Amino acid sequence: MLAAVPIGFKRTPDALHDLENLFYDNVSLTDLREALVLAGLGHLDEVEAQLRTWGMG
User: Fold this and answer.
1) How far apart are CA 31 and CA 22, in angstroms?
2) Model pTM greater than 0.70?
């Protein structure tokens, strides 16, 4: 089952497409996920909020 995507958030294929257009190059799904993890480490409050919406904590 797919998790609901909050309003204002992009699904992975949409984000991947947008970044490929931005960089005029192919972006691997692995690179996208790694970048998202690293960016998330700088925004732990948002990560915490997302985990809480999934019933953690």
Assistant:
1) 15
2) no
